[in-house]
Every structure is written in structure tokens, then in C-alpha cells.
């Protein structure tokens, strides 16, 4: 475990039993935290620094001069690692390689926070073309969309009409759409959009729950009530990638991890399919063990990872017989997505900065 720092009440709840560590911090198998050992102070400080780093990167990336500079050089300097191509044609070799390696894909047609409805309609045309191109290439068109790319922030009616059209098109080709979850201002609208898709009979459409939001357990209960058929309900669970206030979101890692595990287990107990979308080895180990113990097969658990991240973990999961889907961003509007990946990991920013001074 690399550190003697313990957070468990009982000697029974050891890190080796739970198999969960992150930076030397152990999370109990029951998900409870114990008394804080004083030797944990450096770890707590490390978490504060990481949280500050994250909010700084997300804040700085919002400044127009920074955005202009990164947009100019960023694709070459680092974004290419996380974005498979400027369009679906450019991304096809990467998509085929993933499929050849036993993974499936979900394509994110990049775009978010459009400033007018016409832009949203143009985005929807791009997404429709991507769905058709995937189908023509023999790849099931499973696509992930950001509701604000369909004008959710401007006109909810337009957003739901566009989402329904795209979901029909994808399902018509044997695929489906997933609605990404964005910042907390759009959670209600996004959940309404998902319900509108289900009401239109597009029950393969899936949504995302963010473990860091205080409200999420209630949102899960509401979705379980709303679904016309829980056995066809599919939900992606993530930690959450946006800069949210402590009034609405947890900021400490152990609490978010506990919330994550609890959401997945609740969704499974209710009969839903869970997309375990994380690169966190601890969560993956714990949920894989839970699924095994509960006899849940690939129809109920799918691991999802982001393109360019942890290829060895991706391969290990496939090797262990799990269903693994890679979220592959495609498009020119990569700036917001790339900023969130930089914010998650200081080493990514260091890579970009090294490229700049080389
Ligand atoms: C398939 C998928 C879909 C997602 N969809 C959404 C969504 O709709 N809405 C939303 O808010 N968030 C979404 N996210 C992002 C998510 O909320 C987290 O911000 C992100 O996954 C990082 O948290 P983590 O759980 O992977 O673990 P972390 O604890 O952040 O990381 C665990 C380990 O993964 C590796 N890692 C993590 N991030 C990076 C990185 N940027 N670069 C390199 N290595 C890294 C590191 O080795 C790290 O130690 C999605 C994530 C995935 C995997």
C-alpha cells in the first residue's frame, strides 16, 4: 500500500482485504471511513493541493487568451492523445483498432454550450452524419452527446426534438445515444431530456450520474421511478468532471468513491445495467467483485474508459472477460474536453508545457 496511513475503525477492514487504495489511502470494503490517523496529514494536504490545481486549471482555461493559445497549439501538443480525430473519417483507424482489440466504442461528437439554436441544428447534422458513417463502416453507432450542444441551455423543446431525431436514427442502425452529464446547472434539464427520450419509446437511450453531486442518490431514485422498464435501463456512473461549489458537490476523494460505489450497487439491486466509467483501480476492483458475487454478467455491467487512458487496464479488463467500451471523442471542438483532462492530472499539463518549451 505504500503508506502506513490507515482510516479504518477495525483491523478487519484492511486495505489488503478491500483491495482499494489511492495514493496510499485505503477505503473500507463497507465504504466507511474510520478515525483519521495523524500520519494522514500529508495525504490530506496532497488532496487539497490537487483540488486547488483542478479548480485553477478549470478557471484559467475559461480565460479567452488562454483558450486562444491552447486552441492554436493544443491539438499537436497534447489533445491528440485524447481526441481520435477532427472528424469520424480521421478517427476510423483508431475505432477499428479498438474494436479489433475486443473493445466496443462510444463516439463523442465534440461540442458543448452552443450560443445559438442554429449552431445546435448544425451540430445535430454533424452527429447524424457521424451515425451514418459509423453504420457504413460496420461499427454500431453508439454516440454520446452533450445536451448543451443540442441547445438545452437555450430552448429545451429544440434540444428534445434534436435528441429524439438522433436517437431514432442511431437505434434505426442498431445503435443508441447516451446523454453526457454537464455542469450542475443542466442536471434537471438533462434528466428531463432523458425522460423525454424514454417517453418517445427510445428506451435504449442512457444517461449519466455524477457521484460528486449531493443530489445524485435522489436523482437515481427518480430515474428508477420514471423508467418504463428497468431491465432496459442503462446508466453511466462517473465521479464528475466540472468545477462545482462545495454547496452542491463533495470535494474529497474518499467520499466521492463511497458515493460512486453506493450508486452502482443501488442501480444493480434495482435491476439496471451500469456503465462503470472510471479509471480508478480501487472502484473497478470493488465493483467487479460485487458483480461477480451477485452473478451479474455483461448485460448488467460494462466498464467504460476514456480514449487514450490506461490502455493496460483496458486490455486487462478485456482479458478478464469483461465488456469494455471506450469513449472516443471526435471533432474540432476539443478545447473544453481537453481542459477537463488536464485538470484531472497535473502530469498531463506538465506534458503540454514541456512540448511548448521544446
Ligand atoms: C467513459 C467516461 C465517460 C465520462 N462521462 C462523463 C460525463 O458525462 N460527465 C462528467 O462530469 N464526467 C464524465 N467523465 C469524467 C469523470 O467524471 C472523471 O472526471 C474522470 O473519469 C476522472 O476520474 P476517474 O474516476 O477516472 O478517477 P481518478 O481518481 O481521477 O483517476 C484514477 C487514475 O486514472 C488515471 N487518470 C485519471 N484521469 C486522467 C487523465 N486526465 N489523464 C491521464 N490519466 C488519468 C490516473 O492514473 C489516476 O490515478 C467520464 C469518464 C469516463 C471514463
Walk me through what this model shows:
The structure is a single chain. The chain has about 350 residues and is α/β, with parallel strands linked by helices. The protein folds into two domains: about 15-50, no CATH class; about 85-335, TIM Barrel, CATH 3.20.20.220. It is built from 13 helices and ten strands. The protein has helices at about 15-20, 40-60, 65-80, 90-100, 115-135, 155-170, 185-200, 215-225, 255-270, 280-295, 310-320, 335-345, 345-355; strands at about 20, 25, 105-110, 140-145, 175-180, 205-210, 235-240, 275, 300-305, 325-330. Helix 11 links the parallel strand 9 (about 300-305) and strand 10 (about 325-330). Flavin-adenine dinucleotide binds near residues 238, 239, 278, 306 and 348. Flavin-adenine dinucleotide binds next to strand 6, strand 9 and helix 12.
Keywords:
two-stranded antiparallel ribbon, 8-stranded parallel β-sheet, alpha/beta, 10 strands, binds flavin-adenine dinucleotide
Amino acid at each position: 500500500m505504500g503508506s502506513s496511513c490507515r482510516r479504518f475503525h477495525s483491523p478487519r477492514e484492511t486495505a489488503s482485504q478491500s483491495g482499494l487504495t489511492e495514493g496510499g489511502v485505503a477505503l473500507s470494503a463497507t465504504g466507511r471511513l474510520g478515525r483519521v490517523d495523524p500520519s494522514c496529514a500529508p495525504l490530506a494536504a496532497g488532496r487539497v493541493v490537487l483540488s486547488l490545481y483542478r479548480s485553477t486549471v478549470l478557471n484559467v482555461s475559461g480565460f479567452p487568451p488562454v483558450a486562444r493559445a491552447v486552441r492554436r497549439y493544443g491539438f499537436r501538443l497534447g489533445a491528440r492523445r485524447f481526441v481520435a480525430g477532427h472528424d469520424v473519417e480521421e478517427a476510423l483507424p483508431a475505432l477499428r483498432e479498438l474494436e479489433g482489440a475486443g473493445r466496443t466504442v462510444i463516439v463523442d461528437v465534440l461540442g458543448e454550450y452552443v450560443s445559438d439554436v442554429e449552431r445546435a441544428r448544425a451540430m445535430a447534422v454533424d452527429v447524424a452524419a457521424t451515425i451514418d458513417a459509423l453504420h457504413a463502416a460496420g461499427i454500431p453507432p453508439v454516440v454520446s452527446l452533450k445536451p448543451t450542444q443540442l441547445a438545452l441551455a437555450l430552448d429545451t423543446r429544440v434540444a428534445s426534438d434534436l435528441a429524439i431525431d438522433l436517437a431514432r436514427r442511431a437505434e434505426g442502425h442498431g445503435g443508441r445515444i447516451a446523454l453526457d452529464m454537464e455542469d450542475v446547472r443542466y442536471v434537471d434539464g438533462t434528466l428531463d431530456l432523458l425522460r423525454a427520450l424514454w417517453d418517445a419509446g427510445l428506451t435504449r437511450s442512457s444517461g449519466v450520474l455524477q457521484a460528486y453531486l449531493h443530489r445524485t442518490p435522489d436523482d437515481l431514485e427518480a430515474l428508477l421511478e420514471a423508467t418504463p422498464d428497468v431491465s432496459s435501463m442503462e446508466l453511466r456512473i462517473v465521479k464528475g468532471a466540472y468545477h462545482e461549489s462545495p454547496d452542491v458537490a463533495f470535494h474529497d476523494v474518499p467520499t466521492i468513491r463511497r458515493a460512486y460505489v453506493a450508486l452502482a450497487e443501488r442501480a444493480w439491486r434495482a435491476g439496471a445495467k451500469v456503465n462503470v466509467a472510471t479509471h480508478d483501480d480501487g472502484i473497478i476492483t470493488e465493483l467487479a467483485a460485487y458483480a461477480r458475487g451477485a452473478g451479474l454478467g455483461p448485460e448488467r455491467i460494462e466498464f467504460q474508459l476514456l480514449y487514450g487512458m490506461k490502455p493496460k487496464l483496458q486490455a486487462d479488463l478485456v482479458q478478464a472477460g469483461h465488456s469494455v467500451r471506450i469513449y472516443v471523442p471526435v471533432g474540432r471542438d476539443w478545447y473544453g474536453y481537453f481542459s477537463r483532462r488536464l485538470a484531472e492530472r497535473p502530469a498531463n499539463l506538465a506534458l503540454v508545457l514541456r512540448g511548448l518549451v521544446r
